[in-house]
Amino acid sequence: xxxxxxxxxxxxxxxxxxxxxxxxxxxxxxxxxxxxxxxxxxxxxxxxxxxxxxxxxxxxxxxxxxxxxxxxxxxxxxxxxxxxxxxxxxxxxxxxxxxxxxxxxxxxxxxxxxxxxxxxxxxxxxxxxxxxxxxxxxxxxxxxxxxxxxxxxxxxxxxxxxxxxxxxxxxxx
Length: 173
Ligand SMILES: [Zn+2]
Ligand SMILES: [Zn+2]
Hints:
By secondary structure, this protein is an alpha/beta fold. The chain has helices at residues 14-28, 54-61, 117-135, 154-159, 166-171; strands at residues 3-9, 32-34, 45-46, 51-53, 69-76, 80-81, 90-92, 98-102. It has one domain: Collagenase (Catalytic Domain).
């Protein structure tokens, strides 16, 4: 059976990764493996923006894909961007195998609020399922409770459930 592979990109808290691994395994009903060693994110660092280009990181993830790979999800704590946007929470290959998510702007501290580990974990799960949904060829959904609803701000992630609405679930290929 093909597996969901998680790849840390830089230093990611192991307890958070382990928790995400268990949740995704249960949700997608596939074996889920944590790949090591971590990918070094510095190759995609752009000093003029002080951010990491997510598409470049996705390109660097390609060699980690094997015959066993169902999907490969990169997880990083670094701040991601694509050139046309200020930032991205994550990026995915539509209908492909690769996706990446960042915890950077999912942390309450980023918004000047006290740390909330549980909220961070929940947001990371929702964002991970969202990006994996794109790899399953899903586009954005109008149902704001659905994990495939677009989120341009962190508050929108908090409205969503980390699950697909029945319409999206039926369209998964
Ligand atoms: Zn999206
Ligand atoms: Zn939906």
